[in-house]
Design brief:
With about 450 residues, this protein is an alpha/beta fold. The chain has 13 helices and 17 strands. α12 packs across α13. It is elongated.
Length: about 450
């Protein structure tokens, strides 16, 4: 499989082209320069051949802005080390001296380059292509990423380069493509999706980079550095993991522009697409109201949760782990069922222990149980603590599993509508104790047994 990187100055349409090739809106598109900072990666297929495509941050010339410098360095590093084919994007209406500067820089990689002249939105714009011949790139194509013009021509050029790179390797890939696709479908079914969430600057990007062993997300003390969700799929101790680094979620009143609004909404969508969320906390701040809000987002969506207290290695002296856990449970009792982990996001050992906990929770959410063992557990619990409902002793007839991920169960009883919340909580805690449902919400639906079952 070959890797394609989209490079170019800010605002030339890189993310629009990326979304067009991917076939959905993955990267945030906005007229503000510098929206894309981290590298977004997606798989695409051209004539049945699989490629990884990278959307990079805008190439800016030397600047006093440290973050812009990091974005530029990361984009050029991707072109140099990770990519096989480079798409250098320019704006047909705004030729710029920096285009030549950066093309000369990426020529040194000896990677094939396609000069993609974007924003050819009408036939009258075709003449604009001529002035870009002076850049000296043999492969050129005019497109409109926004209006889907010229995209087929671009794909054809990518295929031609692909076929010329390694003919022998390509023949092997084509021969085995059907088997690879079947393996991919199987692995997708078993994949564990883990989202790293939290406030800005909690250490989310650092954790992702530590786990995968490279700087996939840009780390900066500037709040809001991560904008698009950044995901990385890899194998960890035999498990297929998709790890997602999300934008920091701030209070609504502090979200003051469209870019951040879309970033936060995508972070929430990443929660919805996950099996388990790692909620990163800053140990120096404790559990803030915003942390509680984020935790509630996870709980409401019935996702697994692991709470990671970051920067534990540099905490204030005298704070013990038992004290900290008790503080957390007293401050936010609704999360008494979750795993707590003390970590330093820069330490590989801590990061891997944290990931192992998240995987454990994910597997817990996929457990299946026989009706007999479920019924026996609930009946025993009602015998240990008996109540009356509707004037009669509360009785459970049987329980059955109705879903996984999240785990869901139907409990058929005599007076479900008369059960109080206290007793429901007792049954849930007893159920968790027996079946070890730590780290995940469970759904218990109490139902009246039908007359046919009586």
């Amino acid at each position: 499989m070959k890797n394609i990187a989209i490079l170019g100055r800010p605002n030339v349409g890189k993310s629009t082209l990326f979304n067009r090739l991917v076939g959905r809106r993955k990267s945030i598109v906005d007229s503000t320069a510098g929206v894309t900072r981290d590298i977004s990666v997606e798989k695409i297929y051209i004539d049945g051949i699989e490629f990884n495509i990278f959307d990079t941050g805008g190439l800016l010339d030397i600047s006093e802005d440290i973050l812009n410098e990091k974005v530029r360095e990361k984009a050029l590093k991707t072109a140099t080390e990770d990519s096989d084919i480079l798409l250098f994007l320019v704006d047909a209406h705004q030729s710029h001296p920096d285009d030549r500067h950066f093309i000369n820089a990426i020529r040194k990689t000896n990677k094939p380059i396609i000069l993609v002249i974007n924003k050819i939105d009408a036939d009258s714009h075709n003449q604009l292509i001529n002035e870009f011949y002076s850049l000296g790139i043999k492969e050129m194509v005019g497109i409109s990423a926004e209006h889907n013009n010229g995209i087929d021509d671009l794909k054809e050029k990518i295929l031609n380069i692909y076929k010329s790179l390694d003919k022998k390797e390509n023949e092997k890939i084509i021969k085995n493509s059907e088997n690879e696709n079947l393996e991919e479908i199987t692995s997708e079914e078993n994949k564990i999706n883990i989202a790293i969430v939290g406030k800005p600057n909690a250490g989310k990007s650092t954790l992702l980079n530590t786990l995968i062993g490279k700087e996939r997300s840009i780390v900066s003390n500037i709040a809001g550095t991560t904008r698009d969700p950044i995901d990385e799929t890899f194998n960890f101790n035999g498990d297929n993991i998709c790890l997602i680094d999300t934008a920091g979620i701030r209070k609504k009143k502090n979200v003051n522009n469209d870019i951040e609004y879309y970033s936060v909404n995508r972070a929430i969508k990443s929660i919805e697409a996950s099996d388990v969320c790692i909620l990163m906390l800053d140990v120096f701040e404790g559990l803030t109201e915003q942390d509680k809000t984020i935790a509630n987002l996870i709980i409401e969506r019935k996702k697994g949760i692991v709470i990671a207290s970051n920067k534990w290695d540099i905490r204030e002296k005298g704070i013990t782990w038992n004290y900290y856990q008790n503080y957390m449970k007293e401050t936010f009792p609704v999360l008494n069922y979750v795993f707590y982990a003390r970590v330093s996001a820069t330490r590989k050992k801590d990061a891997e222990k944290l990931l192992s906990l998240a995987i454990r929770v994910a597997k817990t959410r996929r457990q299946k149980f026989e009706t007999h063992s479920l019924t026996e557990t609930f009946v025993r619990a009602t015998r240990e603590y008996t109540i009356t409902a509707g004037g009669n002793p509360f009785k459970i007839f049987y329980a059955t599993q109705t879903g996984i991920n999240p785990p869901a169960f139907a409990i058929f009883c005599n007076h479900p509508q008369k059960l109080n919340s206290h007793y429901k909580r007792y049954l849930e805690n007893k159920f968790r104790e027996i079946f070890d449902f730590r780290g995940t919400p469970i759904i218990l639906n109490f139902k009246k047994r039908s007359k046919k079952e009586s």
